[in-house]
Amino acid sequence: MEEELKKVNDLFLDSKSQLEQCSIDLDEKQQRLEETSRHLEKTKEKLVEEEIVCSELSSAHESLYSAVGQLLSAVGESTGDVSGLHAKLDRKTKVEQHNMQMQQSFSQKMDGAFSSLQRSVQHYGHTGIHKTVGQLNKNEKKD
């Protein structure tokens, strides 16, 4: 009987030891599970935050692309306007050059005409004076 009591006691001690070890293992696993759960919650929160940030970033990209499109359109219009302005300035410069040439040509023609007129007046003036003096002399002789 003592032997059986000893066997039962040994079995009890073994079972108790196994139970304590299982309790320790269970506590460790419970702590790891709680830690993993907290980590999972933090990861879920970060995921939600990243989804929000990604959504906002996507919205910002769309806005930027829209703004870039508008800017490119405005640049295209401005380039056309600048090209038209340059063309207009080129036409104006050509007109001014043509007007300057016409003015110089007219001035030269007028100078020539005035010179010719002056020569004619001078020639007529000399010829006319001689004729007038001659007529005066004739008229005086008649009187």
Task: Summarize, please.
By secondary structure, the chain is mainly α. It has one helix at residues 2-142. The protein has a domain at 1-100.
Description:
This protein has one helix at 2-142. The chain has 143 residues and is mainly α. The chain has a domain at 1-100. It is rod-shaped, with a radius of gyration of 59 Å. It starts with a helix and ends with a helix. One of its GO terms (biological process) is spindle elongation.
Biggest β-sheet description: none
Shape: rod-shaped
> Proportion of β residues?
under 5%
The level of helicity is: over 70%
Distance between the termini: 202 Å
Tally the helices. Answer: 1
Instruction: Enumerate the spans where pLDDT stays under 50 for 5 or more consecutive residues.
Output: none
Structural class: mainly alpha
Main location: cytoplasm
Coiled coil: 19-53
Subcellular location: Cytoplasm, Cytoskeleton
Keywords: Coiled coil, Cytoplasm, Cytoskeleton, Motor protein
